[in-house]
Design a protein that fits this description.
- By secondary structure, the protein is an alpha/beta fold.
- The protein has a domain of about 280 residues: Spore Coat Polysaccharide Biosynthesis Protein SpsA, Chain A.
- Helix content is about 45%, strand content about 15%.
- It has a seven-stranded mixed sheet, sandwiched between helices.
- Helix 7 runs parallel beside helix 15 and helix 12 packs across helix 13.
- It is elongated and about 115 Å long.
- The structure holds 2-acetamido-2-deoxy-beta-D-glucopyranose (NAG).
- The site of 2-acetamido-2-deoxy-beta-D-glucopyranose has 3 residues, from loops.
């Protein structure tokens, strides 16, 4: 209470002073107030239209009108007002900050990627040089069995440690499926499932006691499966696999032109969203290298380094049930449904490898290239391995006859060579096609 009384008494004495000095003081005061306001509200007093601001201001004006002319007191009072204004400013800043945080929170819940960042995002310590490691292995999703309860029941029985081999087949590939199944059975692998796309395959699976799954008849994509050629079926697999992952299972997708020689689950790293075999034919093309582009017209800057890697094979890859892996399937399936002439393997690789750039958000997916001798494509086998006495002694995990047209014959030759041990099994085949 002391201060207001003090002010009032000095107001009384002020009335007795000569008029001139009062006017000078008033002008000085006005200018000073103007400067303060300009500093505190550079965008104008009524810019935001805030009730809060104008209320505080009118109160201040009243108080200023009743102050004394004594210079020390003016300074003190001004200090008080400045304090008052900056308090107001702090409060406003705090309110704006709160609003910004709320807005950000709303934006984050709209974005799966942001949610994932929140999920992973404990602040991390950084170790000394040579020891720093980024996050490789994304968290798995929360399994949701109601995505496909019928499939969920099958998977409960078939999977081991939440993982399995999945292959799609229609009657066109039945002879290859026979070789595929028998090589898997010989290894004692039980966690595999055939997605039967027509009745011929359903019958085959029943006769051979192979676990199978059929799509619901009202699924519109089924027409693709029944009548489709190789590429159309390839597109279908991305749609179907999504459900496996959504229900929390890891999937080793396998084409049928593959012979199993060892159990692949003993050779999977499980540290990446996507682990895939490569179409590369040597260590450079499979694992990546720098290729130098030459533009002589540029003189001093004629050499440009480029990053190169041969595509991943979309006929044999392992996916963990993570958001990134599911997003990959989602993106590929979506593009294939809109680009009827796109090749699924090209789309698969573009989504995997192209980074974000203006106007495009790339997939943030972790990937691992499988060992090219363990997960062997038929170019490596026929151009290199079968001609090299040391490499011939290697025992691959699988051989994928992806590079050659006479697939069934070569699959059988792979069985004869690696499983029956006949060293001349490949002798009649050319490296490529005739
Ligand atoms: C689970 O899947 C069903 C069917 O797709 C969906 O309606 C539901 O929202 C999902 N639940 C969760 C928790 O994701």
């Amino acid at each position: 209470m002391a201060a207001p009384i003090g002010r009032r008494s000095s107001y009384a004495s002020q009335v007795l002073r000569p008029r001139g000095s009062r006017i000078v003081v008033a002008i000085f005061f006005g200018i000073l107030l103007g400067c303060i306001l300009a500093a505190l509200y550079p965008r104008g007093l009524f810019y935001s239209g805030s009730h809060f601001q104008s209320r505080r201001l009118s109160k201040s004006n009243l108080q200023i009108g009743s102050t004394s002319c004594e210079s020390t007191e003016i300074v003190n009072i001004l200090k008080l007002h400045i304090q008052d204004f900056s308090n107001t400013n702090e409060e406003l800043k705090k309110q704006i900050k709160d609003l910004k945080e709320k807005l950000q929170a709303v934006e984050q819940t709209n974005s799966q990627a942001e949610q994932q960042v929140v999920g992973v995002g404990e602040p991390q310590k950084v170790g000394p040089f040579g020891t720093v490691k980024g996050i490789r292995t994304n968290p798995t999703i929360i399994p949701n069995e109601s995505v496909n309860p019928r499939l969920a029941k099958i998977l409960e029985k078939v999977t081991i440690k939440n993982e399995l081999i999945v292959s799609l087949a229609n009657s066109k590939v039945k002879p290859m499926l026979e070789v595929w199944v028998s090589s898997i059975k010989k290894l004692g692998i039980h966690n595999y499932l055939v997605v039967a796309l027509d009745d011929g395959i359903v019958d085959f699976c029943k006769e051979n006691r192979v676990q199978f799954y059929t799509r619901d008849p009202d699924e519109d994509i089924d027409s693709v499966g029944k009548t489709g050629g190789n590429h159309e079926v390839s597109g279908l697999k991305f749609i179907i696999l999504k459900e496996f992952l959504q229900m929390g299972y890891s999937v080793l997708l396998s084409d049928v032109d593959i012979v199993y020689i060892q159990n692949p689950f003993e050779h999977i790293y499980r540290d990446s969203d996507v682990e895939s075999m490569s179409d590369g034919h040597d260590s450079m093309t499979a694992y990546g290298y720098t290729d130098v582009f030459d533009d002589p017209a540029m003189g001093w800057a004629r050499y440009v380094h480029t990053m190169r890697i041969w595509v991943y094979n979309s006929g044999f890859f392992y996916l963990r049930p993570t958001l990134a892996a599911i997003e990959l399937l989602d993106r590929v399936a979506d593009r294939l449904s809109h680009e009827p002439y796109a090749w699924d393997q090209a789309v698969f690789n573009e989504e995997l490898f192209f980074p974000s750039y203006p106007g495009y958000i790339g997939l943030h997916v972790s990937k691992r290239t499988m060992d090219r001798y363990l997960f062997m494509n038929s170019k490596v086998l026929f151009k290199e391995v079968r001609k090299d006495d040391d490499l011939k002694k290697l025992k691959p995990v699988i051989v994928h006859v992806n590079y050659n047209p006479d697939k069934l014959l070569r699959m059988k030759a792979v069985v004869v060579f690696y499983i029956n041990g006949k060293q001349d099994a490949f002798d009649l085949f050319p490296d490529g096609s005739d």
